[in-house]
Write a structure and sequence with these properties.
Elements: H1 3-15, H2 18-25, H3 33-38, H4 40-49, H5 60-103, H6 108-130, H7 148-152, H8 158-187, H9 196-204, H10 206-294, H11 297-332, H12 336-367
């Protein structure tokens, strides 16, 4: 960084905060003071760049050329507006004359003046349409085969034109004065009933007053733009601070919720345990009441003993079943050969049981 740039940065810091100066130098950039704080080198770069560009981002030489071009454009625009204004005023004068002609009698010389002016305007407009400019092709076909020279033949008589030219400044001035007075009445309605001299005096100051009003409107527009930029930055700052507050509030809520959640869960668990115990006791009570309503006390005691005996037998049967299933599973592991032996064993056991029964019957019959 050069010495001048360093001095500029130092001056910025003395006048106000460097960040605020950078933000004021680049109002169109969507950056915040926090961004500049986190990027110090970028902030210095913007501060240095502010010496070479304006608030719109244009460099000083380009800004100068742009101002010259705008001045030239304004000059050309004023020239065009002056010519266009005179042309429109002449057209309005012919239109006003046509309206007056249908409502009142117009003097012959005035009628001749407006007819001559209207013909001149029409011929001039047609010639401008037929005469190609320097940017168009000279070989293009003309409209209806007409030429500017042919249109010039339709001009009024030269003496009528000269008379019209002599009266034109006076009539044009009168028409423009009437329009200015109408503008003055619109701008300040309370001046409408003033005298002619006072109106003329105030009319001479109307341009300056409207210029002041225009400057005031531009000043208010610039102030409004600055306030809009300031409001946007303040809104961004407010939203960022609000987001921080919301995050802090969320963290506090979360910590508080986690801290009391254990106590709350324990209380809920105790409540549900007590409620379940109460429901179970109520169910047992209902069962006992149903038994007492259905059976006698001795019957209930006998049923209880029968249930205990059946439960013990059921458990013994389940144990025996499990033991047999284990043995059967071990036998099934031996394959189909053992299955044939098991069937033969079952057949022999049946024969032994049959012979034993027959022998027992035979012995009983013999003893008789």
């Amino acid at each position: 960084m050069s010495a001048a740039e360093s001095a500029y940065v130092s001056t910025l810091g003395k006048v106000d905060s460097l960040h605020q100066q950078v933000l004021a130098s680049f109002p169109l950039c969507d950056i915040t003071e926090e961004d500049l704080t986190q990027n110090a080198q970028f902030c210095k770069l913007l501060a240095t760049l502010a010496q070479h560009v304006d608030q719109s981002g244009l460099t000083v030489p380009l800004k100068t050329e742009l101002e010259k071009a705008e001045q030239k454009l304004q000059s050309q625009r004023r020239y065009w507006l002056r010519s266009e204004g005179v042309h429109k005023a002449l057209q309005e004068m012919t239109q006003d004359h046509c309206i007056r002609k249908h409502h009142a009698t117009v003097p012959p010389d005035q009628n001749m003046f407006y007819e001559t002016m209207e013909k001149c305007l029409l011929v001039a407009q047609c010639i401008r349409q037929l005469d190609p400019s320097s940017t168009t092709n000279q070989d293009q076909p003309s409209v209806l085969g007409l030429t500017p020279q042919q249109m010039m033949e339709l001009m009024p008589l030269e003496k009528n034109i000269q008379r019209m030219k002599q009266s034109l400044p006076r009539e044009l001035e009168k028409h423009l004065k009437t329009k200015c007075l109408s503008l003055l009445s619109y701008y300040q309605p309370e001046w409408e009933n003033e005298s002619e001299g006072l109106k003329n005096s105030k009319l001479s100051h109307l341009s300056a007053q409207m210029g002041n009003e225009k400057k005031r409107a531009e000043s208010l527009k610039e102030s409004s733009r600055e306030n809009s930029v300031l409001l946007q930055r303040q809104t961004q700052l407010y939203l960022s601070e609000q987001i921080k507050c919301i995050q802090l509030l969320q963290s506090l809520i979360l910590d508080h919720r986690l801290r009391i959640q254990t106590d709350l869960d324990r209380k809920k668990l105790d409540y549900f345990e007590g409620k379940c115990e109460l429901v179970l006791q109520k169910i047992k009570t209902e069962m006992v009441e149903i038994q007492l309503d259905t059976y006698k006390v001795d019957t209930i005691s006998a049923h209880t003993k029968m249930r205990e005996k059946l439960s013990s037998d059921l458990k013994a049967s389940q144990v025996e079943k499990h033991s047999v299933e284990l043995k059967l599973a071990s036998f099934e592991m031996l394959g189909k050969d053992f299955e044939a032996l098991a069937e033969e064993y079952c057949r022999l056991r049946q024969e032994i049981e049959m012979n034993t029964w027959a022998l027992k019957e035979f012995t009983q019959c013999k003893n008789k």
